[in-house]
Structures are given as C-alpha cells and as structure tokens.
Amino acid sequence: MIRFIIGRLLWMIPIILGVAIIVFVLMSFTPGDPAQIILGATATQAQLDVMRDAMGLNDPYFVQLGRFLSDTFIRFELGASWITQADIMDSIIERLPRTFGLAIATLALSLLIGVPLGIFAAVKQGRLGDNICMAIALVGLAIPDFWLALLLILLFSVHLAWLPAMGLGGIEFFILPALAGCSTGIAIFARQTRSSMLDVIRSDYITTARAKGVPEFNVITRHALKNALIPIITITGTRFGNMLGGTMIIETIFAMPGIGLLIITALNNRDYPVVQAGSIFLAIAFAFSMLLVDLLYAVVDPRIKGQYVRQRRRVKKNA
Fold first, then answer.
1. 171's torsion region: left (phi>0), alpha (psi -120 to 50) or beta?
2. 178 compared with 212, residue with greater pLDDT
3. Its pTM surpasses 0.85
4. Do 259 and 274 form a contact (C-beta atoms < 8 A)?
5. Among candidates 287, 294, 278, 275, which has minimal Cα distance to 99?
6. Over the chain, what is the mean pLDDT?
7. Is 287 within 8 Å of 16 (Cβ atoms)?
8. Residue 263 lies inside a defined structural domain of this protein
9. Is residue 124 classed as helix, strand or coil in its secondary structure?
10. Which distant-in-sequence residues (6+ apart) come within 8 Å of 157 by Cβ?
C-alpha cells in the first residue's frame, strides 16, 4: 500500500507540471494588456513599456515560462498579485477553507439526496417510483447551476427573506450556494447508484440472502449497497474535484470570497500570477481527492486490498 501511495504521489508531479504549463500558455494567449489595466487608459507608451519591463512581459516567451516554473516548483514562491500587491499564498490560504467548505457541503447534499433516490429507483425498477426518481434526475441534469442560484435568491432572499443572498458569515451563508450547486450532483449520484444497484441485486448471493429470510432492508443496505459502492466512490471523488473548480460561478453569484471568485476576478483583471497559482492549487486538490478515492477502494472492497498485499509479497519474493 505504501509503495502504491508513493507511486501515485510521484505521478502527480508531471500532472501538476502539465497543468501549470497549460495554464501559462492559455494566459499568454489571452487578449488584454495587464500593464494597460493597471495604469489605466491615460498611461503613455513610455509608462506602459516601463511597467511591462517591471512585470517581465517584454522577456522572450520561454524565458517567462522558465521563470514561472522555477519560481513555482523550485523556489515555491507564488509572488504577489499584480493588481492588489497582496501575497498570493496568503490570499489562497485565507480563501481555501471557504471553497472547501462549500464543496463539501454541496457534495454532502448530493450524496444524501442522490444515493437514496438511486436505491429507491433500483428497488422499484420499472414502476412508478423508478420513473419519478429518474425524472427528478433528468431535471437536475437539465437545470443550469447559475439559473437555479438566481431562482433561490429570488425566493428565499428577496421574497421570503429567510436566508442571506450573498456575502460571508455563519452557516446560513452556505445554504443557498450549496443548494444551487448540488442539483447536477444529485442527478449523477441517483443515476449511478441505480445502475450499480441493479447490477448487484441480480446477483446470486442477494437471491440467497432473500431465500434465507433476511429482511429486505438488510439485504439492500448491508449486502447490495456495500458491493455497489465502488462506482459511487469514483463519482464522489471526481465530483468533489469538479466542485472545487465549479464553485467559481456559484461564488461569483453569491459574492462568496473563495478561490473561485479570486480566480474569476484575477482573470478579468489579467492578473496572471493569481490565475496560475489558483489553478495549480485546484489541480493539486483534485489529484489528492482521486488518491483518496483509490485508498477508499481498499477499505470498501477486500479484493482490491488483497491485490495490494499480493503485489507486495511478490516484490519481496523477487527481491
């Protein structure tokens, strides 16, 4: 297991490096002049040239790329924002808990609603309950997050005045953003859970458990669900990674100062260092979430853990 974890961590290095290069290339081809944005429309050409020299924008392309990679991955220096002059690392650390909190709350709602819907649909396959659950999932996939967010603000903030529409504070500020961001997740978990459960409940050991008189609730929860968890865990990891990046729209609508809003603001201002650093942090978080998924496989399915043990024994035998 340790060898597997170390191997996955080593594989993250070229992945994160590739993400950094792609983001740098995309930002280099983005229209707009950061020096012009900082100095304003009244700046002279001489002032713009001085500012570009100070920012390193007049250097050759590969010199800029090499400096960026060296500062990020060798010196571990993210620098400061071109617009606010704030330290980028401090800004990310300050905002990271808010983005993680929103992603976890959204994922929890998606799981708590989507998985039971999928189980119910599988148990009621082909009947009215199945059709209703799948219709709910279809609606969840069709509704855009930003449109649902605006509807929730109009209903619960403007008309009912129950929840705040934007800003940062207690847990009540996370309710509407989490509800707005979980519709797609609910649909995905419901459909995946239904598919996995249908594969499992047709198995022989489920028929045997029922023949022995095991209550139906125990058959579904203790036998079928546990063996249907592998695809659900995979979707959970990928959804969490997607939600970290997908919170950009939600954070912008609800004016929640997280990493998503930081990246969107920096992108509008052509603040390249902030966009690059934020994207790298999100890529690292996504990579670690997928590593956690692989480790959870061994916890849920003893067969996968047995594969790790056999591989370790073969390595020791060959050594």
1. alpha
2. 178
3. no
4. no
5. 278
6. 82
7. yes
8. yes
9. coil
10. 163, 164, 165, 176
CA separation, residue 279 to residues 95, 244, 284 (Å): 14, 10, 9
Tell me the three state secondary structure of residue 87. strand
Name the token pair of 251. Answer: 């954070």
DSSP code of residue 154: I
Per-residue tokens: 71: 């500062």
**Residue 267 included in any domain:** yes
The H-or-E segment that residue 312 falls in is helix 302-318
The answer to whether residue 203 is domain-embedded is yes
- Whether residue 226 has pLDDT greater than 60: yes
Give the start-end residues of each E strand in the chain.
none
Q: How far apart are CA 65 and CA 73, in angstroms?
A: 12
DSSP 26-41: HHHTSSS-HHHHHH-T
CATH number for the domain spanning 117: value is 1.10.3720.10
The CA dihedral of 24, 27, 29, 31, to the nearest 10 degrees, is -170
Tokens representing residue 170 in the block: 């207690």
DSSP, collapsed to helix, strand or coil, labels residue 299 as: helix
> Which residues are CB-contacts of 43 (< 8 A; sequence separation ≥ 6)?
35, 36, 51
Cα-to-chain-centroid distance, residue 317: 40
In a domain, 36, yes or no: no
**What is the percent of the chain where pLDDT is above 90?**
1
Residue 35 near residue 52, CB atoms below 8 Å: yes
Residue span of the structural domain in which 243 resides: 94-274
User: Which residues lie across from 87 on neighbouring strands?
Assistant: 80
Give the residue from 17, 55, 13 showing the smallest Cα distance to 37.
Answer: 55
Give the whole-number percent of the chain exceeding pLDDT 70: 91
pLDDT of residue 254: 86
- Structural tokens at position 270: 């052509």
How many structural domains is the chain composed of? Answer: 1
Element spanning 270, H or E: none
pLDDT score for 311: 59
